[in-house]
Amino acid sequence: MPHRPIPRPGPDECASEAGAYVARVAGDDAAPRLAAQVEVAARRLGPLDDARALHRYAPGKWSVKEVVGHLADTERVYAYRALSFARGDATPLPGFDEDAWTPQGRFDARPLADLLAEWTAVRAATVALFRGLPADALVRKGVANGTPVSVRALAWLAVGHAEHHLGVLADRYGV
Length: 175
Description:
Helix content: 40-55%
CATH topology: Four Helix Bundle (Hemerythrin (Met), subunit A)
CATH class: Mainly Alpha
CATH architecture: Up-down Bundle
Shape: globular
């Protein structure tokens, strides 16, 4: 099935601090990047051995494995929010504390290849979700973490959030 365009959200469609993630994404349609991004990342990170994937650029910072696990966790949260709001559910959704979640994931005990495969599967489900949404669902809004957010903004946030962390991996981890 061809992708459904996911137009750039307006500034009122997500929290202002989240807008920095949206701004990281080039173009006017998030769908192509949503579909391709994780494969590009997996080709870049896949060659790392597990010892290298345990690298932290400073004390108290996440390892490469923890970053990848965090990407899968966050993507699940964004996708659930998108599904909920696309279906018209007005229930406000909570935020989440990634600094509390990440240690509980015990990502360092898992092979990097498994973490990349998991994120790939999660992203494939996200792509399928957005491909199956009617166009009018993309502009529906809900409240997450105390802030209004549109369904389409959540797609852009998934891409921009991953871009942010992939940039950190390149700049600070050398991968």
